[in-house]
Amino acid sequence: MKFRISFFTFLFSISANLFSQISITSINSSTVNSCIDSVVQFSAVISYGGTNPVNYTWSFGDGSGDESGIDLDTINHTFNDGGGYIIRLDVNDGIDSDYFLLNYKIALEPNFSGTNSDREEPICLGQQIFLTGKVNDSTWVYEIPDENIEENPVLISDANPYTAEFDYRIFTKSQTITSATDIDSIGINLEHSDLSQVKIELSCPNGTSIVLKDFGGATGKYFGNPNGTGSGFDYFWTNTPDNGTMNSIVPTGNSLPSGTYTPDESFSLLAGCPLNGKWNINITDNQAIDSGFIYKTNVIFEPSLLPAKWEFKHTYSSPEWLGSGVSTTSGLGLATAIPVAHGNHRYIFKVKDNFGCRQDTSLINTVEAVTFTTTPDSLTGDFDFLVTFNNTTSWATDFLWDFGDDTQTSLEENPSHTYEKDGIFKAIFTAGTDDGCRDTMSVIVTVEIPPSSLENIPNAFSPNNDQKNDFFKLQEGVGLKTFECVIYSRWGKKVAEWHSIEEATTGWDGKMNGGQEASPGVYYYYIKAIGFDGQVITKKGFFHLFR
């Protein structure tokens, strides 16, 4: 009875295995090819006669990581970079498995070199811009993943074993390793302070592995140059090496020389390994005392095994410029633009590739408003107000300043101007270019007449040339247009007179009209001044002359 149960169990197992054979018929996609950042839907069609749940594992070959799930026969994916991708789908029901490869193309980023504007510097409002749009046909070629260069050297130590993964998807499903010569070479670029502590292995997609270099070999010797910052040497295992196994070599120097070596175990032991799938180079360090760094690894198959080169080419059409004041774009990608406002203007050049994707680039043109500064910063002052205007407009080549007070205009770049009357004036600066573009900026200048006053007339002075109070002179006067002053001795003799503000501020040096020094004593003055505000000011008084 036990025999029958076992026999029937055996038959059921055979029947179930035959019935559960699974295979992927195809992968359908929502588009034949796609644009960058577009969402693409992929759907698998499988042939399956079993009842177990089917697990689907999708790998898109773009570094995004695998996605797995039961009955995940449909999936959406977005590719962020242009190029060709080999999508791999693995299915498994726990008894049988299959995989399928699909080549899928994503539109490339165009090469827009040569796209430019003839006005790279800021321009005047109203100047015309000539826009040249250029896009170059581009070709993408699939790169066989036979070399892995580490962006930064990777530490190799007893606590940090290393694995370099090579995921091949370019072969047919039936291609396998049939002889040692199917492997051209396996390479590493390595440095380590004790080569005897290092083991290096190669494993294939079905789990078979061989030892390229086992622990052992010459003690106290290095891989590469581990001193200081370290540098790796190139080591390769081939079918026609220049050297024996690494462990059989005793270097004459401290480092195992770069070159080609015999693997500890023959490549022929990998016969039956599928070419498609993940090939790994594994490096192990068995001691804590020494360490090293890996820089690069290689897995290179015999070139005759490789399929035909996979490539595609982009061509472009429908050039178009978009932006402020842009004209119709010619078939050669040429257009003009006249911006209608100050500020930064973005001009976008668009083309359509042969995948139907709209691609674009852009450039910025700046329309700079007229600018200038003034000295002083505050443009409110009293009459005879001196203002210096300083052009700061980068594109200006000629200049016209209208100061707004009905005086003569100036063609200087940085003129100075005195406002000699009161009022509110609009100063207008017109900047121009050699090709006739003009733009303006204005500013308000306010000139005020202060109330006239005459204060603090001195009551004594001592003209003895000691540089202290040697002159009798006007100390404080505001807003005075005219000034008259007569100085008398105490006997009524006129000894000095002033007829202007300049004379009053210079003062009397104590000498009479004939040049004779006046005697010490009391002197009298009479002042009559008229202010710019029309006020008549009269003052009379006396002061002392000391010697």
Helices and strands in order:
Blueprint: H1 2-19, E1 22-29, E2 39-48, E3 55-59, E4 67-70, E5 74-78, E6 83-92, E7 97-106, E8 116-117, E9 129-132, E10 138-141, E11 147-156, E12 162-168, E13 183-192, E14 198-203, E15 209-213, E16 222-223, E17 233-238, E18 255-256, E19 259-261, E20 277-285, E21 292-301, E22 311-314, E23 316-322, E24 334-337, E25 343-353, E26 358-367, E27 372-375, E28 380-382, E29 385-391, E30 398-402, E31 416-419, E32 423-432, E33 438-448, E34 453-455, E35 460-461, E36 476-478, E37 480-489, E38 494-498, H2 501-506, E39 521-531, E40 536-545
Parallel strand pairs: 16-18, 17-19, 28-33, 35-40
Antiparallel strand pairs: 1-2, 2-5, 3-4, 3-6, 6-7, 8-9, 9-24, 10-22, 11-21, 12-20, 13-17, 13-21, 14-15, 14-20, 23-25, 25-26, 27-29, 29-31, 30-32, 32-33, 34-36, 37-38, 37-39, 39-40
